[in-house]
């Protein structure tokens, strides 16, 4: 397939280029586009064949449902059976933005889009290019993250080009995304509402609107829960670079000491070692490929760098990544969720 890469300035959108991409969506094609969280791979959510092509392009298992993106709250009504009362204040507070809401689907959404489920995941992104693309196409756009299945989500067009060039019709390049981790997912078909995936909207923020919430037990890891996760996608190996990732968790001094010890042991065995450090610790390692994920006091910086950093280790040919854990509070909960999955829950407590 021939892929066109179109550059669009998010602060000054060239409407001719954007309308071209919207036409490709209308004709059932595949368009990768930026959102504020990660790049998405979009197609007409109401068109079964188009949705099917998303799974093909990504190599995604067909039971892993797609998120449907809208550009205004009133586009929600025809996509769901009914709008639960508690969803209204959620939309008011967090849309547009990185919150995905699970509701009962209406009949116009094909089951291909929802991976066979009777529920549908919906979100209204805040990125100006995403919003304009949805508005101009006049359609709800189904879009998973625009990576090959299993790889870290793309936070810049270069990642999308690396994974999907030749497999999609159009890739819109609008620079780096803002948040860097996928949206928070909340299931509003159950009572109390359940957090299925932590993300840019924190649990505390959700609780301010919803009161008490449940958390999918599967988020604590395969050793804690024997039930599969409620978001089908969370069960798959994910976010994985080619290297084996090991997370080291504990007081910062002990973490640094143990990473240095493990790094020496692995390099003596002939392995190329990479270290995921932070601004606070990056000086404390030498002789290895060290990447600072960001500032521990500004965890948003770590969120926005995480997937790029995982891909950088691949580019460097690193075989073992030793990663410092961060505090699993607020956005840190989402960071540690993605890191744990990248590591296949290979965590050493020190
Ligand atoms: O930030 C995001 O959410 C990005 C951007 C592109 O919007 N999209 C994204 O999509 O992360 P994806 O496909 O990588 O992740 C969607 C997750 C999967 O874990 C999937 O299983 C879950 O949402 N999901 C979708 N529909 C669902 C449903 N009806 N019930 C439960 N989980 C659902
Ligand atoms: Mg994904």
TrEMBL record:
Its main location: cytoplasm. Its EC number is 2.7.7.87. Residues 15-201 form the YrdC-like domain. L-threonine binds at residues 37, 69, 123, 143, 183. It comes from Clostridium thermosuccinogenes. The lineage of its organism: Bacteria, Bacillati, Bacillota, Clostridia, Eubacteriales. GO terms for biological process: regulation of translational fidelity; tRNA processing. It comes from the Bacteria. This is Threonylcarbamoyl-AMP synthase. Required for the formation of a threonylcarbamoyl group on adenosine at position 37 (t(6)A37) in tRNAs that read codons beginning with adenine. The keyword NAD does not apply.
């Amino acid at each position: 397939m021939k892929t066109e890469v179109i550059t669009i300035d998010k602060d000054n959108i060239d409407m001719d280029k954007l309308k071209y991409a919207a036409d490709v969506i209308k004709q059932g094609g595949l368009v990768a586009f930026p959102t504020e969280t990660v790049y998405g791979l979009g197609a007409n959510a109401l068109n079964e064949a188009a949705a099917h092509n998303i799974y093909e392009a990504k190599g995604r298992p067909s039971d892993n449902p797609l998120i449907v993106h809208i550009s205004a709250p009133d586009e929600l009504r025809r996509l769901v059976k009914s709008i639960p009362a508690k969803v209204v204040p959620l939309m008011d507070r967090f849309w547009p933005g990185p919150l995905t809401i699970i509701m009962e689907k209406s009949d116009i959404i094909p089951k291909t889009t929802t991976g066979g489920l009777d529920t549908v995941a919906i979100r209204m992104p805040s990125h100006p290019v995403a919003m304009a693309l949805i508005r101009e196409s006049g359609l709800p756009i189904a879009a998973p993250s625009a990576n090959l299945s299993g790889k870290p989500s793309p936070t810049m067009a270069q990642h999308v080009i690396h994974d999907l060039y030749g497999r999609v019709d159009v890739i819109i390049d609008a620079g780096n995304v803002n948040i860097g981790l996928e949206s928070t997912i909340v299931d509003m078909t159950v009572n109390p509402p359940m957090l299925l995936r932590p993300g840019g909207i924190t649990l505390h923020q959700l609780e301010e609107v919803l009161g008490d919430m449940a958390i999918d037990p599967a988020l604590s890891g395969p050793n804690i829960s024997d039930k599969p996760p409620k978001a089908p996608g969370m069960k798959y190996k994910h976010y994985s670079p080619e290297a084996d990732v090991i997370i080291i968790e504990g007081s910062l001094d002990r973490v640094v000491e143990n990473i240095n010890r493990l790094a020496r042991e692995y390099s003596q065995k002939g392995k190329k070692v990479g270290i995921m450090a932070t601004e606070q610790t990056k000086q404390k390692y030498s002789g290895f490929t060290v990447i600072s994920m960001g500032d521990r006091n500004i965890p948003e910086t770590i969120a926005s760098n995480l997937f790029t950093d995982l891909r950088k280790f691949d580019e460097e040919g690193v075989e073992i990544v030793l990663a410092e854990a961060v505090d699993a509070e607020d956005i840190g909960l989402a960071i540690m969720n993605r890191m744990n999955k990248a590591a296949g829950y290979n965590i050493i407590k020190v």
